[in-house]
Specification:
590 residues, mainly alpha, 2 strands, sodium, Na/Glc_symporter_sf
């Protein structure tokens, strides 16, 4: 196998640059939060909550702008029958960030939470928090595995080096600087990585456009030349499926720890909102070169290129259209620079996902569910171990599992249909409880899994209106597959059913217990009768709701440890706003 020295050199330079920036960021901020008395574990998760506007805007944009984003956008613009009309990620994720900034960033940041799961455990208890951790963890791990898998395929297109080795080295670098510097290393490397993506791709675009094999993309946008026009169109029969997928991106893009990791590390609630809006603009801007590269791929006479007469689509290589354009339509030195940009994009996504997964495990599972008395140094070591374990798991899946994209699609759907309605309930709907949360979880899970998942060859057991069987022929192997396609917007329907189930069952059980129709001894989740427990509600909440007087505060003995009872208390919440949640979870001044 031939090795392209220039390509390897370009990748080494990019990786060294990112590694150096990651280590520098860790050294620069090693004492952050010490003066304020912030725990070291919390500093790793959310820094000293002092991420400023410049770094914050870049790292918030990097929430979704990564390897999968730029590769996927180019792929859908290129694909005949889809085109720009179906490239929903740029506008979907941009709208996700706008909605996150408008409605979710301020309450989450001003209440001083450390992870996305904190409000769930505060209102619904530690057991429900553990259940909600499962789809959240699956989403982060499978996302990391999917983009690492994409990196291996990308590198193999342009540089003939061992795919396994390139993926392992990339993952090790991301794991190392995340271990060293936590959220600071992730944030500062995001600045470098987004700069690399933007410059690397924009340098490549003019060379690809000027290639003799490429027709005028303005003409191929509306007229069929080598394939269908790349603008694409939405058939009337597909409009509900299009809307379902768009809602999945727009609303399902909110309840991810990778997003709230940035929100909660911002220097104030207002800054968190501003950063979300800036990142939405950044998502659109960063998608432009990918859209152009996809359009270039659709406008190319591949017979005139070194790629060969058979276009990528007929070789089942549409997902690699971006690196294929870089290699076959650009000079070698330009394609290698673009390759560095793509590999940098992958690491910008992988590092934050791995940190997010380890943060949720260390805090919400290990500390709050099992070891409330754990020391700060113990939590730090748990985080370090899980960063390595989750990173190794994502890498192994990228190398060994052929269905990693299918796993990520399914897990991201579960985040949408399960966690998003629960997040709305816990932040904005007064009176929901653990019984409703469990019911909503089950409803969403059954209705989504019931619709099947073609990427995993998971057959449906619920056939929604408008379903049909699609015949898919693999061009390389001539293998024929028959897949059930659900045109009904069942993902959004599952999400709404999960939300309504949560609210309905919460109020049902509240009525049954409070009216005496069900005995208090059956409140086994301590969600209604025992709602004054320290696990569900802190003492300040009881005072604010006039359930207990200030003079009664002294003898109160929380059932859980002081560490857990004060976990959700943050001094800054009292200075920013006294905003009420569904259970009015104000925070006591320690």
């Amino acid at each position: 196998m031939a090795i392209h020295i220039e390509g390897v050199a370009a990748i080494v330079i990019f990786y060294l640059l990112i590694l150096i920036v990651g280590i520098w960021a860790a050294w620069k901020n090693k004492n952050s939060g010490v003066e304020e008395g912030t725990d070291r574990s919390e500093t790793i998760m959310v820094g000293g909550r002092d991420i400023g506007l410049f770094v914050g805007a870049f790292t918030m944009t990097a929430t979704w702008v990564g390897g999968g984003y730029i590769n996927g956008t180019a792929e859908y613009v290129y694909l005949p029958g889809y085109g720009l009309a179906w490239a929903q990620a740029p506008f979907g994720y941009a709208m996700s960030l706008v909605l996150g900034g408008l409605f979710f960033a301020k309450p989450m940041r001003s209440r001083g939470y450390v992870t996305m799961l904190d409000p769930f455990q505060q209102i619904y208890g530690k057991r429900m928090g553990g259940l909600l951790f499962i789809p959240a963890l699956m989403g982060e791990i499978f996302w990391s595995a999917a983009i690492l898998s994409a990196l291996g395929a990308t590198l193999s297109v342009i540089v003939d080096i061992n795919i396994n080795m390139s993926v392992i080295i990339s993952a090790l670098i991301a794991i190392f600087y995340t271990l060293v510097g936590g959220v600071y290393s992730v944030a500062y490397t995001d600045v470098v990585q987004l700069f690399c993506i933007f410059v690397g791709l924009w340098i490549s675009v003019p060379f690809a456009l000027s290639n003799p094999a490429v027709a005028d993309i303005g003409v191929t946008a509306v007229k069929e030349l080598y394939q269908d026009p790349w603008l694409g169109e939405i058939d009337s029969s597909d409009k509900w499926m299009w809307a379902d997928n768009f809602c999945l991106l727009m609303l399902g893009g909110i309840p991810w720890q990778v997003y709230f990791q940035r929100v909660l590390s911002a220097s104030s609630a207002t800054y968190a909102q501003v950063l979300s809006f800036l990142a939405a603009f950044g998502c659109i801007v960063m998608a432009v070169p990918s859209v152009l590269i996809g359009a270039i791929g659709a406008s190319t006479d591949w017979n005139q290129t070194s790629y060969g007469s058979v276009p990528p689509m007929q070789k089942d290589e549409s997902e690699m259209i971006l690196p294929i354009v870089l290699q076959h339509l650009c000079p070698p030195y330009v394609s290698f620079f673009g390759l560095g940009a793509v590999s940098a994009a992958v690491m910008s996504s992988a590092d934050s996902s791995i940190l997010s997964a380890s943060s949720m495990f260390a805090r919400n599972i290990y500390q709050l569910a099992f070891r409330q008395s754990a020391s700060d140094s113990e939590i730090v070591w748990v985080m370090r171990i899980t960063i390595f374990v989750f990173g190794a798991l994502a890498t192994a899946m990228a190398l060994l599992t052929g269905t990693v994209y299918g796993l990520w699609y399914l897990s991201s759907d579960l985040v949408y249909v399960i966690i998003f309605p629960q997040l709305i309930s816990v932040l904005f709907v007064r009176g929901t409880n653990t019984y409703g949360s469990v019911a909503g979880y089950v409803f969403g899970l059954i209705l989504r899994i019931g619709g099947g998942e073609p990427y995993l060859k998971l057959p449906p057991f619920i056939y929604y209106p408008g379903w049909y069987i699609n015949k898919k022929v693999h061009h390389t192997t001539q293998e024929v597959e028959y897949l059930v396609v659900q045109k009904f917007p069942f993902k959004t329907m599952s999400m709404l059913a999960s939300f309504l189930g949560n609210v309905a069952f919460s109020y049902l059980f509240k009525y049954l217990f409070e009216s005496g129709k069900l005995s208090a001894k059956y409140d086994f989740l301590d969600a209604v009768v025992a709602k004054h427990s320290a696990e569900i509600m802190d003492r300040t909440t009881l005072v604010n709701r006039n359930i207990i007087g200030l003079d009664e505060m002294a003898p109160v003995r929380p059932r859980l440890s002081v560490t857990l009872a004060s976990t959700f208390s943050r001094k800054e919440t009292l200075t920013e706003e006294e905003e009420s949640s569904p259970e009015s979870p104000s925070h006591e001044n320690e």
